[in-house]
């Protein structure tokens, strides 16, 4: 008979430390949520207090002030198209690098992995010059191309580790049955990449949806995303914290629901991608 694990003081202290750490990470969400229901004066007096009354006035005013349906659709289009292109291109690239380990492909893999350590701030000025040179600034496809360029390294790296665990015999059997190279990938290999594909989607959606710095450099007022729209509440002489908190709460709802729906695949995909075939 297996003995039950003893509940030791050390285990209790570890659980208490984990709970305290979880509460620490949840503190910003508390301030955001409670202050989204409070008036500006109440926020300035005591930002940590609970609201005296629960009302939706801040949400209605923020909805109108930033034209939330429009900026939401802009964020949705930029995020969905960018993530879709990242999944398609990075998965195909990783498959080619794994199955054709030539000297050039190994060098390309090294360059792409090394690119992940370059901070974005160091390439801001060259980025602005290049986007202006190729007329990408202010265009929808311009921001998508930029997100593809900055996100493909990590996405390809995750796919690269996962594809190593896909048995080569499956592909060889498909070739014997008359499947073309593209058919082998899209009909045989890509369906097996579902766990890591979900991981790539989640990580890139969280990044692109909340990104502020790249859109402010590339897009214009016609394609304003939610992070850029919220910035209008912070002027030189007045900061409308009540409306900003309400707008940020509205922007968090869809992304939190999306994350909760798919978050169980994160550990599964990253763990599977770490298996070396």
Would you tell me the structural class of the helices and strands?
mainly alpha
Main sheet summary: none
Going by CATH, the architecture would be Orthogonal Bundle
User: What is the oligomeric state here?
Assistant: single chain
Count of DSSP strands: 0
Helix content: over 70%
- Level-1 CATH class name: Mainly Alpha
Structure summarized in a few sentences:
This protein has a single domain, classed as MetI-like fold. 73% of the residues lie in helices and 0% in strands.
Q: Please, could you describe this protein's structure?
A:
- The protein is mainly α and 277 residues long.
- The chain has a single domain, classed as MetI-like fold.
- The chain contains 14 helices and no strands.
- The protein has helices spanning 9-35, 40-45, 57-65, 68-99, 103-115, 124-133, 140-163, 168-176, 181-192, 194-210, 213-218, 226-230, 241-262, 264-273.
- It is globular and about 70 Å long.
- It starts with 8 loop residues before the first helix and ends with a helix.
- 25% of the residues are buried.
